[in-house]
Amino acid sequence: MAPSEYSLRLQKGITGGFAPPTPSFIATITRPVDSDSLNITSASRPDGTPDLQSFAPKTLGLGTLKVTALGSVSVEGLIDELHGILKELPTEEPRGSEDIYGLDTSIFWGSDDLQWMNGGMGGVTGQPGTVQPTPEQRAQFKRAVEIVETLVGEAK
């Protein structure tokens, strides 16, 4: 179960090298302590432009997101799934060496019980590292990215 207060950040565009990476999308999601909603901000960079363009801050309640024939999906359930996935995934060694998940995407999660981040603060250099995820772990990271994208997409 995810803690009652956390912050996470997703960034697409983490591969750099000599020059730092040029992000194409950044989203942040925070849950303040004792809040029943998430605060979500995002920015994207259209192709051919140099800067990220911010969107207005949005919120998303922790209740039911959608009801399907298989049951309902709640925001809190997705956050719990994301938290559980990240707790089990490895990160690259040394930090910032390579994009071990191959999606040119990083996630940072910060809470009292978990500090997790793939990719260095300045992106990744592409140099080989010592940690390689299994195919199952790559699939789990892809699922983690999908969860964050779903939450950002559902915010109002």
Structural key phrases:
7-stranded antiparallel sheet; 2 helices; two-stranded antiparallel sheet; about 160 residues; about 30% strand; globular; alpha+beta; about 20% helix
Structure write-up:
The longest helix is centred in the C-terminal third of the chain and has 20 residues, at 135-154. The strands form two sheets. Strands 1, 2, 3, 4, 5, 8 and 9 form a seven-stranded antiparallel β-sheet that branches. The protein has a two-stranded antiparallel ribbon with strand order 6-7. The model has no long low-confidence stretch (mean pLDDT 90). The protein has helices spanning 75-88, 135-154; strands at 6-12, 25-31, 37-44, 53-54, 58-61, 64-68, 71-74, 105-111, 115-117. The protein is 22% helix and 30% strand.
Short description:
The protein has 156 residues and is an alpha+beta fold. It has helices at residues 75-88, 135-154; strands at 6-12, 25-31, 37-44, 53-54, 58-61, 64-68, 71-74, 105-111, 115-117. It is built from two helices and nine strands, in the order E-E-E-E-E-E-E-H-E-E-H.
Topology:
Blueprint: E1 6-12, E2 25-31, E3 37-44, E4 53-54, E5 58-61, E6 64-68, E7 71-74, H1 75-88, E8 105-111, E9 115-117, H2 135-154
Antiparallel strand pairs: 1-2, 1-8, 2-3, 3-4, 3-5, 6-7, 8-9
Helix pairs in contact: 1-2
How many beta strands in the DSSP annotation? 9
Instruction: Kindly provide the radius of gyration, computed on alpha-carbon positions and rounded to a whole number of angstroms.
Output: 16 Å
Q: What string, H for helix and E for strand, traces the elements in order?
A: EEEEEEEHEEH
**How would you characterize the largest beta sheet?**
7 strands, antiparallel
